[in-house]
Every structure is written in structure tokens, then in C-alpha cells.
Specification:
The complex is a heterodimer of chains A (about 100) and B (about 230). By secondary structure, chain A is an alpha+beta fold. Chain A is about 30% helix and about 30% strand. Chain A has 2 helices and 6 strands. The two termini of chain A are about 25 Å apart. With about 230 residues, chain B is an alpha/beta fold. The chains are: A alpha+beta (about 100), B alpha/beta (about 230). Chains A and B meet through α1 of A and loops of B.
């Protein structure tokens, strides 16, 4: 079964307290060459049947409306079985994308 | 006057909200997240707690609950809706009020009796306060940091939609010390602190007069009753 992966990150301009706490911990460990950490989320969505343009469009909508909150987060990448969604050549009945 | 309180999986303060409504003089009505039935209530409270264990984002999954379709519809028709803490997070996730919440800037859960200034006394939930009133009610959250983009902050400040602001201490790093906001119409109000825990002497925050005697939260509920009485 195909897997669609959605990656969500906190907006760059917003404070990411989790990432900041991890970065501070790295500094305490003496790993000060790693100066910044930001923590996001990865969703692995299993799909029944082939992924066509309609499925991908529906998932994209969910990614924007539910998996992420556009006030504080960005959907940074969607991949289908490892291929970046925008690079996929998908066709839906009577329509070419 | 019947005011509904919706219970979600993980709600904690639903019964406290019902009690506050009763003490204020209205009839509390228990509502259930999984139904499409507001039971004809005159106003709605989304209570505090940790619905769905704060999975995904605080309030995010609950904001898609079946009953939220009816809540959004009622809110858009002018029914008074109050979101407390997790309920505020749900209102933001449902886009009924502007902005969003992130983890507290200091990354920790915090509980304290919090001083607030009531910045807007024209909303359905604050009209029994005097302008600029300072009140103390409990606050308890981990994801209470109110944020929005610069343009939204400018708009809510300009339109008087900042209803409450933290005074003395900003407990979570919220932008502009914002503790609560409303929609444009002023019938939907959300805030992080808990007015329902400060409605009865002996069970509220300490005051200079006596231990646990603070009842500064009661006027939220009497304001809603006043709004509804005026509308009849």
C-alpha cells in the first residue's frame, strides 16, 4: 500500500521552544558546533489503492487544514513513496496535471 | 436561561463550568461532543481540559468534533460562545477567533492565580465588568502562548478584540501579553485563564481579605445572562 508522507514545521519566524531546549542541551554536551535545532512533525499516511491526483489533492487539503495550522506552521513537503509530490506525474479522469 | 457546556474526551472543567453557570443564576445543560444537538441552549461554553491528550495540537482534534458544526453555525448567528483554556484553543483551531497557541515559551506547565485587565467590556461575556477592571482568576496550561502574524495582531488590537491582557506577569510569553480575544462581533470570546474556578467564596483564589475568597470570574457568566436577557 502506498504511503504519503507529510512534513510540517513551525513557522521560521516563530519561537520553537522545543528546538531551543534541545539546542541548549547540545551546548551543555559540548556539541556547540550544532548551533540551532527546530523540531517539526512527520505524518505517514497509508492509502488504500493507487494514489491519483484526486487522492493527493484531498490529502493536501487535509495537510493544510488539519495536520497543520497555518497560523503557526507550514507544510514543507509532501512525498508519495519517497517521490516529492510536485514531481509526480498524476492523471485523473479527463484531466492532466 | 440555558447555557450549554460541551464535554469532549479529555475535558476536565466541564462540571466546574456547569457549577459556575448555576451559581450565576442560569441553568447548565450538559452537551456531548459526538452529537449534533445543542439542545436549544441560549449560550455555549467550551470547557478546559486536555481533549484528545493535546495530540496533534491542543484543541485541534476536538475542533473537528461532530457538535462543532453546530457550534460554528450558532457562533456565526450571534449565539454567545465562551472558550476557556482548551476551549480557547478549540475556538482558534476552528477559526472562530483569530490567532493560535503554541507551547509556553518557558516550555513548562504553569499554574498560578493570574491578574488580568479586562480590556473590552462590550463583549457578550464581559459586559458586567467595569472598563479596565483588574481581576484575579486561576491559570493552568502548557500550551497557552497566544500568537498571530503581525498584521492580525495589529487588527485585533485596533478593533478592540483583545479582551484580556496579563498584568504583572506574562505566564507563557503570549504576544502583547494577550490573555483572551474575541471575534469581530464580540459574541465569541476565548481566554486561557479559568473564570469558572473563581465564582464562589471558599473555592477561589486568595484575596487580601480572606483565603480562597476570590470570585472575580463570576461576572463572565452574569454578563452572558445579561446579554441574553437584553436580547429577549
Amino acid at each position: 500500500m502506498p504511503t504519503i508522507v507529510v512534513e510540517v514545521m513551525p513557522k521560521a519566524e516563530l519561537l520553537d521552544p522545543q528546538g531551543k531546549a534541545v539546542a541548549a542541551s547540545l551546548a551543555r554536551l559540548g556539541k556547540s558546533q550544532f548551533t540551532g535545532v527546530r523540531i517539526g512533525k512527520r505524518f505517514e499516511v497509508t492509502v488504500e489503492g493507487a494514489v491519483d491526483a484526486a487522492t493527493l489533492a484531498e490529502l493536501r487539503e487535509l495537510a493544510v487544514d488539519m495536520f497543520s495550522n497555518s497560523v503557526i506552521e507550514d507544510v514543507v513537503e509532501i512525498t508519495v513513496d519517497g517521490v516529492v509530490a510536485t514531481d509526480l506525474d498524476l492523471t485523473v479522469a479527463g484531466e492532466t496535471h | 436561561m440555558r447555557i450549554g457546556v460541551i464535554t469532549f474526551p479529555g475535558s476536565l472543567d466541564d462540571r466546574d463550568a456547569q457549577r459556575a453557570i448555576r451559581i450565576a443564576g442560569a441553568t447548565p445543560v450538559a452537551l456531548w461532543h459526538g452529537e449534533h444537538d445543542l439542545k436549544g441552549v441560549d449560550a455555549i461554553v467550551l470547557p478546559g481540559g486536555f481533549s484528545y491528550g493535546d495530540y496533534l495540537r491542543a484543541g485541534a482534534i476536538a475542533s473537528h468534533a461532530p457538535i462543532m458544526a453546530e457550534v460554528i453555525d450558532a457562533a456565526n448567528k450571534g449565539v454567545p460562545v465562551l472558550g476557556i483554556c482548551n476551549g480557547f484553543q478549540m475556538l482558534a483551531e476552528a477559526r472562530l477567533v483569530p490567532g493560535a497557541h503554541t507551547r509556553n515559551a518557558h516550555q513548562q506547565f504553569i499554574r498560578r492565580d493570574q491578574k488580568l485587565r479586562v480590556e473590552n467590556v462590550a463583549t457578550d461575556w464581559t459586559n458586567n465588568y467595569s472598563a479596565g477592571a483588574e481581576i484575579i482568576i486561576p491559570l493552568k496550561n502548557a500550551d497557552g502562548r497566544y500568537v498571530a502574524d503581525a498584521e492580525t495582531i495589529k487588527r485585533v488590537e485596533g478593533e478592540g478584540q483583545v479582551v484580556f491582557r496579563y498584568v504583572d506577569v506574562n505566564p507563557n510569553g503570549s504576544m502583547n501579553d494577550i490573555a483572551g480575544v474575541s471575534n469581530e462581533r464580540g459574541n465569541v470570546v476565548g481566554l486561557m485563564p479559568h473564570p469558572e474556578h473563581a465564582v464562589e467564596e471558599g473555592f477561589g483564589p486568595d484575596t487580601s481579605l480572606a483565603m480562597s475568597s476570590g470570585t472575580d470570574g463570576l461576572a463572565f457568566f452574569t454578563s452572558a445572562i445579561r446579554t441574553l436577557t437584553a436580547a429577549v
